[in-house]
């Protein structure tokens, strides 16, 4: 009885809200389509922003927006490119457009009008306008979303908004993923167990020289033993916790894993290592001791 007036007020409020939203989206129908398309790529992002996830996002962008090509750049490399110009903008290769470089350097969304402003290194490139939005995670630029047209007309607002929104989404997602992979909790658990049973625990941190196309923790997961615990620190760092493993053995395993990771990711890997009881029994202290210089 008491809740009835609240329910009525609630439903009326919702209806007014829905009408207001419907009115706004009438002019932005492509935004809604894009949102649904991006939501569809979320299962692929479970392993981080790898090539498969980037390809799915790029094809969603091509489908939903009035553009001729779309790309996602991670670090300095194109990880996905579809549409016109794919003959010379190849995944796995460094980006080739001035537009992309400007967005990465300035941390701002850049709109280019005219082929000179797009600035492709290949003169025959047909791209004549575009937008590049930087992907930021933890205050750092880790890549860019680039949308292109082979037509010298001003870009539609939905294209500019689309680039910026997808870049923001990817940045937030990558940051969230890095934080949810926090190594402190599992390390605390292992340390408590080690103290109880008087056994050693080793912690290794692996850092990639540049932002890889695939986050380092998924590569490490593929190489670690089943009993090892792997956690992400950020895009470039991953932590390996080895229970019942003393420092000398952990050193050997870390050196071997670092070689394998270097091959898997195609980049130099630096490592640091710390262990209980050799260094400290404090999880945060062990992690900071293990951070590569
Ligand atoms: Zn080009």
Break the fold down into its secondary structure elements and pairings:
Blueprint: H1 3-25, H2 29-41, H3 51-64, E1 69-74, E2 77-83, H4 98-106, E3 110-113, H5 115-118, E4 129-137, E5 140-149, H6 157-180, H7 184-197, E6 201-208, H8 216-223, E7 229-232, E8 237-243, H9 247-265, E9 269-276, H10 283-290
Helix pairs in contact: 2-3, 2-6, 8-9
The structure holds zinc ion.
Taken as a percent bin, the fraction of beta residues is 15-25%
The percent of residues in helical segments reads 40-55%
Number of domains: 2
In which order are the strands of the major sheet placed? 2-1-5-4-3
Question: How many H/I helices?
Answer: 10
Task: Tell me briefly what this model is.
The chain has 293 residues and is α+β, with helices and mostly antiparallel strands. It is built from ten helices and nine strands.
If you had to describe this structure to a student in words, what would you say it looks like?
This protein has 293 residues and is α+β, with helices and mostly antiparallel strands. The chain folds into two domains: 3-179, 2-Layer Sandwich (Beta-Lactamase); 182-290, Reverse transcriptase/Diguanylate cyclase domain (Alpha-Beta Plaits), CATH 3.30.70. 46% of the residues lie in helices and 22% in strands. The chain is built from ten helices and nine strands. It has helices spanning 3-25, 29-41, 51-64, 98-106, 115-118, 157-180, 184-197, 216-223, 247-265, 283-290; strands at residues 69-74, 77-83, 110-113, 129-137, 140-149, 201-208, 229-232, 237-243, 269-276. The chain has a five-stranded antiparallel sheet, with helices on both faces. Strands 7-8-6-9 form a four-stranded antiparallel sheet. Helix 2 (29-41) packs antiparallel against helix 3, helix 2 packs parallel to helix 6 (157-180) and helix 8 (216-223) crosses helix 9. Residues 1-28 have low confidence and may be disordered. The site of zinc ion has 8 residues, from loops. Zinc ion (ZN) is lined by residues 85, 88-89, 96, 120, 122, 125, 127.
